[in-house]
Structure formats: C-alpha cells, structure tokens
Amino acid sequence: MKPRQYCFSLFITVTFLLLSGCASKNPLPVDHNYSSALINVPFISPRSELCGSTSIEMLSLYWQSRSSYTPRLSLRELNERTWIPDKGGTLQIELVAAARANALLAYPLEPSLDALFRELDANHPVIVLVNRGFSWYPLWHYAPVTGYDAKTQTIWMHFFDTPNEAMPLGTFAALWQRSGNWGIVLLPPEQLPASAWAKKFLSCAYDFEKIGMTKEAITAYKTALIRWPEDIGILFALGNAYYNSRQIAHAEQIYRKILDIDSTYPFALNNLADLLYRTNRSEEALRLLDTLDTNVSQDTQIQSMINATRQEIFSSKHK
Amino acid sequence: MNISKLIVSFIVSTSLFTEVLSAQMVSTEASFEHAKSVSSKEKLHQIISREDVKKEFEQMGVDSKVIQARVASMTDSEASQIAYKIDTLPAGGDAGASLVGAIVFIFIVLLITDIIGVTKVFNFTKPITNR
Predict the structure, then answer these.
(1) Exposure on the CB side of residue B125, measured as CA atoms within 13 A
(2) pLDDT band at B17, cuts 50/70/90?
C-alpha cells in the first residue's frame, strides 16, 4: 500500500471507530407511546460564549410570557454570575445557583429521555448540558430543549444561532449521554415539574431557604402540597419556614396539621411545644411533650432533644 | 493566614455557641437526615470552603465585584463541591474558538505521526526513521 492510501484507510478506520459509538439506533424507550411537543420559548441571539446565562434568560422570558413570574436578575447580571473566564464557560452548580437567585426553582431532571419528554409534554422547557466533542476532547454546551417529535425522531433546541434547531434524536442522545444526561427544569415556584418526586422537589425548594429566599421557598412548599397534601416532610418544612419568618399563627396551624396526620411525629411535637412556650403557653407545651413520652420513642437523639426542650420550658417557669 | 484562621474559628465558635442557646427548634435540614446533626468540624469545613471558592474564582479571572454575590447564592454543599472539584468540573460555553482548537489539535497529531513515520499526510514532513 502506498503511504497515501495507507493514510486514507487509517483515516476511514479511525473515523468509523469514533463515530460508531455515537449513533444508537433507537434511543427511545420501546414501551411508551410518545407523540410530539413544541414549546414557544423566546430565542436570544447572538449569545457569544455565554450559553449558560442565555439559556436561563430564555426560560425566564418564557415564564414571564405565560405566568406571573417576575425575574430578579437582568441578563447582564446573569452573565456576571455564571461566567468563569479561565474555564471558558459556566459550571452546572453556578447555572443552578444563578437560576435560583433569579427566583426560578431548579429541579434536576431524571437522566432519561422519558423524563425529558414528560417535561416537554407539560410545556416545561429543559436546559441540558451536552458535549459536542468527544470525552477526550470535550466541548461542553448548554441549550434549552424546546420540543420533540417521536415519529420523525427529532429534538428541537435553541442550540446555536437559529431558534428551534432540529437535531436527529440519535445524535442528541449521543451528545447528551456524554454529560451523563444532565438536565435541569427551571420553573417559577408556583409550578411543579411533571416528573417531580416529593423528596427531591422538597430539597430543591429548601435550597431557596438556605440562601435566604424564604418567600420563594414558602410558595414552592405550598405548590408541592397541592400534589402531595399529606407529605409530612413538606408540611414540616413549611411550618418551619413560617416560624422562621415570624408567621407564628401559620406555623402553629401547620404543625397541628402534621400531628393530625401523625400524632407521634416528634419533630413537629417538639417545634410546636417550642412555639407554644414562646407564645406564653408553657403548660400546654409541657402537656404536648408528655404525650410523646407515652407514645414513642427509643431513639436517644430524639429523647435528648425532647428533654432539652422540656428543660428549657421548666427552668424558665421556675425562675 | 494564622490570623484569618483565628477569625474563622472565632466565628464558628460564636455561631455554635449562639445555636446552643436556642437549640430547641428542629430545623428542616435536621429532619431530612433524621437528626444527623452537622458537627462543628463540618461547619468549619464549609466556612473555609466558601473562602476557597472565592480564592479560586479570583484566580480564574472572575470579576471581584460579583464574587461575593455568586458565593452567597450557593448552598453549603454546592460551595464545597466547587471548592474541591473546580478543576475537573465541566464548564459549558459556546466557545467558537474551540473548533479552531480542535483543527489545530488534529493538525499537530498528524504532524507528530508524520514525523515518527506512522503517517504521511503532509508533503513537507520528513520521518525521523528511514523506512
């Protein structure tokens, strides 16, 4: 073989090897009947190197157009909060943090096409991270997915410079798979992801509280209670958020509701006792704590917590 | 360095102290982990990692005016993830120049393979082995 021919066949072999891993035949789960969806998400162009912040902004504009959502940050502020010059891009964590600071709840998508399609069906655009290059030469890129069509196996995304760019599903699945199918649903706190789990949603809502956005957290907890009205974890979080923001009457009502559902839930008992004590109802607080002793609990940590609360109420009574 | 550590430990100790004084409320976080409380060591860790993130950001050319706001909008666990893994975390960016980078990269690979005599793509290269 001549060198040139050799080189050519080497090139073909290498290309084949590199590409053969990409295009899976049918990435769709077989036992589902997917149809199609296309969401009207405002498009921003050009977006230079700031695909992270621009993706947030596009979703923010979308929610402004169809709900009472008002953003907290301008596009310029989003840019400033996500760009890391030496990395040449935006970290996933900072994408989430900036979206949250912009009063959008950031719910991590289950890493599957099924979850993605469920969100799109519910008119929730999803920001995904894809690797346009190879694992050994990554070109990371964020883009909002705006729709899909199962029949033609197409994904629509605001990928680069044209709105709703069509991409074959196989290609998308390959690019997306390289980020571990990372995606994030951004929603105003009045909305619930279609694919949400109670526990995971609660932890995302609580992240609002962690950074001092208690009002948004309370809204998100209330939204969650529409779907999971008797979820004790969510109720407890709501009660605490009310308590911490000095809405004592609301907090009391929620703690009592928890005890209606589960009269032995020790954290609600403890916090309600604390609330009663701080609103000058020490007798009732002590009676409440006594009910716990007869009912539960072998857990030493819970016992010592209850004892500490009782101790504090006692000692202030006998001062 | 020592002084800053001293300040940090002072802040931690006072914050722990004030917490002990009104520790009767169970926080939402504690209910998640079922009374798995955060130790003072972990707390110190988290405060220091926020400082680490600030330093990393400064070194990576982030505008110093926004560093404070950026770190403040992270939860503790997010901040410590960044502090410990920033070098390996992917960063999404359009970076049109990266395509040029890829072409340059392939050019260099082929150049090297030409020079060691595995390929002969370019007519201006001379393999170092005479075959």
Answers:
(1) 20
(2) very low
